[in-house]
Amino acid sequence: MYDLTPMQAASWVNGHAGGQGAQGPSAHLYVELDRTGRALDPDRLERAIAALIARHANLRLAVTADGTARILPQRPGPFLDRHDLSRLGALDCQLALERIRADQSHQRLALERGEAVAFSLSLLPGGGSRLHVDLDMIAADPSCFPDLMEDLARLYEDGPGFALPEAGDFAAHLEARRSDPDGPARAAAARAWWQERIAALPAAPDLPRPPGRREDAPRTARLAERLDPARTRGLMRRAREMRVTPTALTLALFAQELARACDQPALRLTVPMFHRPEGETAIIGDFSDFALLGVAGAEPDLAALARRVQADLAGAITHSAHPGPGQMRDLARHLGHVPEAPVVFTAGFDHPRGSILSDRARRCLGDLVWSVSQGPGVALDAQIARLGEGLLVNWDIRLDLIEQDWITRLFNTFIDRLHALADAPSAPESWPLSPLQRAYLAGREEVLPLGGVAMHEARLFRGRLDEAALGARLQALCDAHPALRLRIDAEAGRQYLARHPKLPLVTHDLRAAPDAEARLQAVWQDFARSPCPLDGPLWQVCALPTPEGQEDALAVKFDGLGLDGPAIAQICAELFATDPPSANTPAATRLHVPPPVPAGERAADAAYWAEALARVESAPRLPWRRPPDRPGPARYRRSSRILSPELIRPLRRTAAREGLFLNTALGFAILEVLARFTPDLRICAGLPTAPALDREDLGNRASFIVIDHDATSGTPRERAAALQAQTMAGLGHMGFSGVDLARQLMGQTGGPLALPVVLTNGLDWQGAPAGAPMRQVDGLTQTPQVALDIRLMRAPGGGIEIAADHAEDILAPATVTAMLEAALRALESMAETGALSLPDPLVAVDLPPDRPHVADPAPHLVRIAEALNHAQGPALICGEESLDYPALRDRVATALAGLAAEGIGPGEVLALHLPRGIDHVVLQLAAALAGIVWVPVDAAAPPARREYLLDRAAPALVVSEEELPGRSCLRPGDLPRPGGALPDAAMLRLRSLDTGPGYYLFTSGTTGAPKCVVLSNRATANVLDQTLSAWKPGPEDVLISVTPLHHDMSLFDIFGGLAAGASVVLPAAGHEKDAVEWARLVARHRVTLWVSVPAIVDMLLACARPGQIDSLRLIAQGGDYIKPATLAELRRLCPAARLISLGGPTETTIWSIWHEIGSEIASAADDMTAGGTAPVPYGRPLDGAGYRICNPLGEPCPPGVTGRIHTMGDCLSLGYLEPGGLSQDGFVTLPDPDGTPRRAFRTGDLGQWSPDRPGQILFAGRVGGYVKVRGVRVSLGEIEATLADHPALSQAMVVDLAPGDGRETTLAALYAARDGQPPGIAELRAWLRGRLPQSHLPDRFLAVAALPLSSNGKPDRGAARALALSPAAPCSDRLGREVLDIYLRQTGPDPEATIDSPLIELGLLPEHLIPVAAALNARFGTALRPSRLIPARTARQAAQLIPPRPDPEDLR
């Protein structure tokens, strides 16, 4: 007794137990074997059958009504039914045989009585016989049939006493399998695997029903065809060529035809499997199982579909511990009903006996003439199996379930395709793709940065086209060069040579076109950019005959999969040569494949490159229009310049004098120029290489080396010599290939793009022959993951063409033109001077016009005095205290008298150590009007800092509410005296326009000790004059001053507001940082103008209630990054308000650059899903301020290139007050465009000239905003800006944490939520991952109520570092290991791999990302795009892309 297997139980329930009705079929196999000439001896046969049943216990299997299985003892017989038809006529015999066939095809054996098999013998006229065998498949599955027939033949021939090998025990086999200790774990894992796939299974085939009413009884028929041995061998050969099993091939073919017939793109099929013990044929039982397989039958590529089917079959076999009936139950639960499984595909190619019937069985028992099986619910069981040296295709069909004509047509179509497949000529020899070819193929995928393009070179020729000779010349080329016959099997990763390829020639006849030239250019532009399809030739030719009198055109292009640059040049030369190329004889069957590099040599070269490129931290940071590491294709174009042939000889002599090759001099000039287009004057570029051209064996043998060129090291001569030495050394270490180098750099820089810049030297390539009928007039090369390819080529007439093939949406054409112009000037300079002298500047930059020096501005002190004397409205409002202009004038007058009484006069220094309030404003006004140098000191500063500030300013008097021992100090209430008066207008004009010290301001000191900046009244008057003219405040306006009064922006609040006669509102004491109170004040006083740093605006927006701030007509922000989300909110709340961005450090007086923010910036801020930001331009300088952006050598930066901002002109402060006098630290000398040296301030800000809006500066961070994290230079400002763009955040700050104990620097992000509900860390990580390189992701995240601010209202990074104490949550090792296993399925097993192993070192290639993403999505239910995996350098980092799920233990 034993428990039924799942398959046995399903067959019993759905068959014998009546699951399909009383007349429903049971799972059984009925076979007929015909023996001609001499009939089987019935008695002898019956004895053999009895011995067979006695030998195999499962042939005596009995199953009770409740499904209990037991083995019965041998029954006495009879064991053979006999039908003597020998005396019947032919027709009667045929009818009798058909009745027997019909009965036994549909019979249900009495398995409950132990009748698991039935034999009958028909004796036929003429002496032959037919053996009828009916086998219940609960007792023995079809895989047992060949063994049973072999045993029966032996027992018949040799007698029942013949000593056959001992038969195995099926019950014992089951017991051993079920007692396997690893079985439950395998079953659980298999079930989990299947459950992840069940939902994705397509529907079962929708088979057409026969017309008329449904029949109650099954009606089974058979369609069969034999393939002869020759066709069988042909089919096996085709499977080998496709590198799939015959089962996968025939199943794919069957699915294609069935899907077409059912008009379904994909189908769910039932595929039986037989888990017989390997090498064991003596056990008879039910080893069967099945798998549910989804097949995309609409896939037209049979080879691709067969490979997919093979992979799916392998997965199903690997996870067969979850049986087919279990899969059906899982599917039923998913669908909510019992699913159908009407179509079964059974293959029997790999039975140990090699055939359904062995030679002995066929000789002894007869040849197979009929075979039919039935199964519950099965409408079509399509079988294909070995029979002798051929194949038997046998379809068992239920005509009560399928329309007969339809299934017959399908069968015939399937057979025809099998014949065609078997008869097809053998495929040519193939060999694997090289690493470079695989990289080019991967580059065609749009998921990669700068992907979605083919690596190919296109050339356009003009001249006289000989159409008649063109085809013959192309054929001669194809015959001479096997590489032109190369084909790529991308799915298989292999290549081969086509035997008789069709010439890839098309003709666009433009001879009758009135717009022939325009149409020709349109054809060329499309031709040059479209790839050669992978299912055809890897080169294409387009002939364009034109009208009489115009030059014809011929366009050619070659894919780099087949030919490298030198080979392409030779093909083009031979295309126009006088003599045709000679054909290779005999025809090649494959191209030359170089031998692998010895392991020792490769390791040594890898070590060389690791050291040579150790300083490379990132891909070149050229002025990209959009980040080149974002996925997606680009459009390429060519720009070029010609170096005159007259300059080549002197340039060669110049190079020789320096011990350089001409190629080195050319490359040096270009690399020097390219370096000027990077912020760090450093360029890392690829240099393609190819071995010496072999005329007889063209192909793509290219690789490349890498040059790391630093334009800041040494002299030009030293840099040029270093370039040549670096190039020669690189050529000596090419055992580490270019693909290896790219992977190394990707791992080293942490980015998905390694070498977007390439310098190609084609000067040694073969040129056009003399007298050629056509000349090259244009060309274009595009390479995946390359944004700029500068190519040196021989130009017609003997010059050198410097061509730049570039992605125009990545690198602006104007930028490329500037590069080429600069390179040409550099080469001309070297040729003309005879030395390696570079023009100064190397890159000519057209600086925008500015006015760093202006005529005297309107005197602001005069305007303030006029307002004090004549205005009548409110002047100052602070809490409940309010002063109108007359009252303010009186207060200022008494202060002037008090200062005079204290002996504080013009040029003396007065320190204001007061909180924000009316007293502070009155004294500030009085000091300015009196010509006293005033300096505000933060009243909230700690004592030590206060003393430092006062010591540095050295005031004659301090006004403070505190006692300051050792200082000459007065309280504000003790200073006023009666009798004071405002100075006259003439004196105030002189003081307004004085260029000497007017007041001091201290810098914030967040990056070091505060500096005392000495500022002039004239510079202040200039800023106020221009601002008042632009903003036009008047007496009807109300300003609120929320900026601390020791901050330079507050000068406009006080001086600008009062000069305009407006009202100035000050928050009362204790409410200086109370944003709720600010909003109340704005609403209460209907404030119209707001000026502050962005952080204070964010605080206002976070606290304002609807309608409170809608009175604002102008909002100006400066001193920090303005978030697009803030602009969007301001546009929503104050749609009519003008939004202004202000810039410039304290050293350049209040602000020196500004930008009015248009609706396009604010509306762009609304789109937070695009992945980028809507950056607010830094703006344009005010008159009186000149701006320069310089690289580390002090040279002007071209547009789009980030450099250090320098400011010059009237706006500049006088310097820093030091104990010994004025210090000029940070002030430098720069030349004007006319060469005149000018004093300039080197700011701590980085910026770039806008490449799209001349004269406008874009802010790019701060000099101190870059830190090194894990060897990569990271911009903190860039991370902050990206994080701040998250719609749920109001503020964000990123700080570096350097532990100082040798451990690496890490990053911490602090953030405040807009609505008090911060998003999760996983969400923020995902937000940043989609927008920044992996190297820029913070290690720690900390939610805070508000960012810590300095006394000036700017972010306080020191305080932020103190807050960043929370450790990062550890990654689950279990999840990381699951992710690692998915990667290893693509890269190959590695027992040493851990979740922190670099994936690139494990062998990860770009083409692996698509299957990895698919596997992750299937396993974890995610929707990851392959591009999301690009930044993940380890399995741990990839695992962080997967949202957390509850642990199974938590669910119990």
Walkthrough of the structure:
Residues 869-1217 form the AMP-dependent synthetase/ligase domain. With 1452 residues, the chain is of the alpha+beta class. It has 39 helices and 54 strands. It has a nine-stranded mixed beta sheet, with helices on both faces. A five-stranded mixed beta sheet has the order 4-5-6-1-11. It has a five-stranded mixed beta sheet with strand order 18-19-20-15-25, sandwiched between helices. Helix 6 (183-198) runs parallel beside helix 10 (324-335), helix 18 packs across helix 22 and helix 37 packs antiparallel against helix 38 (1409-1420).
Radius of gyration: 44 Å
Distance between the termini: 36 Å
In CATH, the homologous superfamily of the largest domain goes by the name: ANL, N-terminal domain
List how many beta strands DSSP finds: 54
| Fraction in helix | 25-40%
How large is the share of residues in beta strands?
Answer: 15-25%
Q: Which features characterize this protein?
A:
single chain; 1452 residues; alpha+beta; Chloramphenicol Acetyltransferase; 7 domains; nine-stranded mixed sheet; five-stranded mixed sheet; 39 helices; 54 strands; elongated; disordered C terminus; ligase; Amino acid adenylation domain-containing protein; AMP-dep_synth/lig_dom
Helix-strand blueprint:
Layout lengths: L5 H11 L11 E8 L6 H14 L5 E3 L5 E3 L9 E4 L5 H17 L10 E7 L5 E8 L8 H14 L11 H9 L4 H16 L21 E8 L1 H14 L3 H17 L4 E8 L13 E8 L6 H17 L5 H12 L7 E6 L10 H7 L1 E8 L5 E8 L2 E9 L5 H20 L6 E3 L2 H9 L12 E8 L3 H14 L5 E4 L4 E4 L7 E3 L8 H14 L9 E6 L7 E8 L5 H11 L23 H14 L23 E8 L4 H10 L4 H15 L5 E8 L13 E8 L5 H16 L6 H12 L7 E5 L12 E9 L5 E7 L5 E8 L5 H21 L26 H11 L3 E5 L2 E4 H17 L7 E5 L4 H13 L2 E4 L6 H11 L3 E4 L8 E2 L14 H8 L4 E6 L9 E5 H15 L6 E3 L9 H10 L3 E4 L8 H11 L3 E4 L1 H10 L10 E5 L5 H10 L4 E6 L9 E5 L1 H8 L13 E2 L4 E5 L12 E6 L6 E4 L2 E3 L3 E5 ...
Helix pairs in contact: 2-4, 4-11, 6-10, 7-12, 8-9, 8-12, 18-22, 19-20, 19-22, 23-24, 23-27, 23-29, 24-25, 30-31, 32-33, 37-38
